[in-house]
């Protein structure tokens, strides 16, 4: 018991929780933006992979870190555009199209990586984002290590939470975006473009997802591995429902998830000998399913989610 | 200005030609990554064809690869018909394989006539259980089965690794995480001498015919389609929608489980954690290419298998990454989706009428 308490009170634990949460914050925000406009984006898992690979590859080829981030976001937006064209003006199955985009983005990323580096055996490293280490602030007890020794990408993620919240709740664009996911006919009647809003939301959301991937290769690690995304995208799809499509709750959900994951890793070192290690590896996925089941009952899905809308047809 | 409008229902011929066109388009688009990799494009296509059908051995290899894809393709096809999104065939395949090695490596010693049906049944049952769970979570709690089945794939694969390092580990395996070999009496024998093609293939064909008959000729099949077309209307008409969904889930999971048994008992002889290079996910592409038709699944599975086998042998000769196959498979899915769109809708130009001056 005392051990558990000392874990929960340690600053390294909460710093790890925020670090684990960062890619999920990007991913949940991205998925939330797509779904709020009425489009489920199951391309997320592949877009994570594409973002991770693109950001890493750009830096490995000599680009500065932030250009790598931009490249990752553009790659994400590009795959988002494919999903958006298939599902918005063409109105095809969002499930199947999303899975197709995941397959496409993953295979494009893997193929590109293998073609660019045909004979490497150990993944080459880049110099990733370093902890910011803001003077004075990072010396504060507890908050210093937890908040002020994270990398710039974690701060970008936190900034994006505010940005998405601000756009959705304080701007007329956000009103239109939410309306297009609930009642596209009404948006059309106001003379706004349903297609434009949805395509834009899916592209922006996909760019955010790709940033989640970029965090993995450019901050959490310093190289690209096959299979490194490992279901994080799917976990985000579960967390969106848990977060009831709200940016603030998305942050909370991602943080709770990060805290749980950081906790079980620490628990593993305490009781590791008694339980097979795989039990701990399974835990995040099981937790996501539990979160989904708990949240599903009262879930207030965007009303037009999954429903295609065609101009000129009521 | 352009507008999208529905087209009158297309003829059966068009519906047969569409997936073919999609497959060809995907193969043609594969030239782009080939060029990107600096490979001689026509030589590459030639090598792929040679690897797929250049010899009896090559052709049987393609059918061997098609076998699990027929099972997982059927699994996806029946579930998608009922709009039950089973994306978990990959996990259910592993559950089937686990059940197969659990029973087939010495727990029961019996003649092949008993043991083979037993491992098949056990695998089907394990797969069925693996899908009934998520289906129940959906019907009971409304938890989206797409997400739960996707997450379960990861959980099950880790569980398999745990078993292979623990309870099911082969003590003679020199420390490798693999199961003991399946007893000879539990193995699906080879179909042709000195080839790897095994009795799992004809079994897969039989399942395709059975599923076809089930879907087209039985009340159960009719109910499955009714639930898929309009669940609310089906419920209103007094169909037991929940029961239909759970039964489809069981059928779909069982088919995926059989894929696992067939791979272990027909091909590998033991279980490792890399048994399936994504057969479950590729099954979704197979089902979509087949237009969810069970007989079409057979043809589509052979095509997807050919993509994998062809790309494998081409990449060995030219040094192009074999991830090319995954790219072609993904492109096939997207092309067939687009094809389905153009079968149902047409894009027409409408002259813009300006109401103010008109």
UniProtKB/TrEMBL annotation, chain A:
A Pfam family matched in the record: BPD_transp_2
Coiled-coil annotated residue ranges, if any: none
Compartments reported by the entry: Cell membrane
Protein topology in the membrane: Multi-pass membrane protein
Keyword terms: Cell membrane, Membrane, Transmembrane, Transmembrane helix
Transmembrane domains' residue ranges: 12-32, 39-59, 65-88, 95-113, 147-168, 199-218, 224-243, 250-267, 279-296
A Gene Ontology molecular function term of the record: transmembrane transporter activity
The keyword Transmembrane belongs to this UniProt entry's keyword annotation: yes
The protein's name: ABC transporter permease
TrEMBL record, chain B:
Location relative to the cell: Cell membrane
Transmembrane segments: 12-36, 56-80, 92-108, 114-137, 146-164, 197-215, 244-261, 281-311, 323-343
Lineage start: Bacteria, Pseudomonadati, Pseudomonadota, Alphaproteobacteria, Rhodobacterales
InterPro entries per UniProt: ABC_transp_permease (IPR001851)
GO cellular component annotations of the record: plasma membrane
UniProt name for this protein: ABC transporter permease
Keywords: Cell membrane, Membrane, Transmembrane, Transmembrane helix
Claim: Transmembrane is one of the keywords in the record: yes
Topology of the protein relative to the lipid bilayer: Multi-pass membrane protein
Keyword Cytoplasm among record annotations: no
Molecular function via GO: transmembrane transporter activity
Domain of life: Bacteria
């Amino acid at each position: 018991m005392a051990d558990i308490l000392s874990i929960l009170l340690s600053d390294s634990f909460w710093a790890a929780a925020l670090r684990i949460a960062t890619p999920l914050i990007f991913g949940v925000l991205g998925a939330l933006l797509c779904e709020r406009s009425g489009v489920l984006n199951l391309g997320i898992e592949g877009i994570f992979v594409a973002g991770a690979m693109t950001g890493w590859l750009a830096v490995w080829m000599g680009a500065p870190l932030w250009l790598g981030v931009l490249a990752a976001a553009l790659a994400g937006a590009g795959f988002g555009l494919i999903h958006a064209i298939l599902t918005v003006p063409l109105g095809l199955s969002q499930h199947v199209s999303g899975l197709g985009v995941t397959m496409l983005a993953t295979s494009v990323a893997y193929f590109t990586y293998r073609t660019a580096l045909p004979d490497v055996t150990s993944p080459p490293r880049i110099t990733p984002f370093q902890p910011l280490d803001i003077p004075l602030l990072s010396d504060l007890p507890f908050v210093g290590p937890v908040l002020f020794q994270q990398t710039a990408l974690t701060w970008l993620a936190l900034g994006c939470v505010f940005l998405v919240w601000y756009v959705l709740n304080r701007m007329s664009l956000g009103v239109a975006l939410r309306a297009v996911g609930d009642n596209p006919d009404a948006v059309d009647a106001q003379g706004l473009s349903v297609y434009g809003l949805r395509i834009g939301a899916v592209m922006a959301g996909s760019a955010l997802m790709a940033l989640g991937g970029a965090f993995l290769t450019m901050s959490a690690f310093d190289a690209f591995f096959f299979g490194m995304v490992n279901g994080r995208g799917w976990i985000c799809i579960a967390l969106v429902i848990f977060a009831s499509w709200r940016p603030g709750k998305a942050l909370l959900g991602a943080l709770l998830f990060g805290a749980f994951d950081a906790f079980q890793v620490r628990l593993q070192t305490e009781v590791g000998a008694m339980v097979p290690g795989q039990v701990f590896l399974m835990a995040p996925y099981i937790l996501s399913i539990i979160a989904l089941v708990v949240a599903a009952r009262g879930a207030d899905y965007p009303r037009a989610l999954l429903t295609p809308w065609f101009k000129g047809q009521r | 200005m352009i507008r999208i409008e529905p087209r009158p229902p297309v003829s059966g011929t068009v519906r047969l030609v569409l997936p073919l066109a999609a497959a060809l388009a995907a193969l043609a688009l594969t030239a782009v990554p080939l060029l990107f990799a600096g490979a001689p494009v026509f030589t590459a296509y030639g090598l792929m064809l040679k690897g797929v059908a250049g010899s009896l051995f090559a052709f049987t290899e393609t059918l061997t690869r098609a076998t699990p894809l027929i099972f997982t393709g059927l699994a996806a096809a029946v579930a998608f018909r009922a709009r039950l999104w089973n994306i978990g065939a990959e996990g259910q395949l592993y559950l089937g394989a686990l059940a197969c090695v659990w029973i087939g490596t010495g727990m029961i010693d019996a003649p092949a006539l008993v043991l083979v049906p037993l491992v098949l049944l056990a695998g089907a049952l394990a797969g069925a259980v693996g899908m009934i769970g998520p289906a129940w979570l959906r019907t009971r709690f409304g938890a989206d089965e797409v997400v739960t089945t996707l997450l379960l794939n990861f959980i099950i694969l880790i569980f398999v690794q745990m078993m292979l390092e623990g309870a099911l580990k082969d003590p003679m395996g020199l420390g490798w995480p693999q199961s003991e070999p399946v007893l000879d009496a539990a193995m699906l024998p080879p179909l042709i001498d000195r080839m790897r093609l095994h009795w799992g293939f004809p079994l897969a064909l039989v399942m395709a015919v059975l599923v076809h008959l089930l879907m087209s000729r039985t009340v159960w099949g009719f109910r499955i389609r009714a639930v898929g077309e309009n669940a609310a209307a089906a419920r209103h008409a007094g169909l037991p929608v929940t029961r239909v969904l759970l039964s489809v889930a069981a059928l779909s999971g069982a088919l995926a489980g059989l894929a696992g048994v067939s791979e272990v008992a027909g091909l590998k002889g033991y279980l490792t954690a890399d048994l399936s290079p994504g057969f479950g996910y590729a099954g979704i592409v197979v089902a979509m290419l087949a237009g969810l038709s069970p007989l079409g699944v057979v043809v589509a599975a052979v095509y997807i298998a050919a993509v994998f086998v062809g790309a494998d042998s081409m990449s060995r000769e030219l040094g192009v990454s074999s991830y090319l196959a995954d790219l072609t498979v993904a492109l096939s899915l997207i092309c067939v989706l687009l094809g389905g769109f153009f079968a149902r809708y047409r894009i027409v130009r409408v002259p813009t009428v300006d109401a103010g001056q008109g």
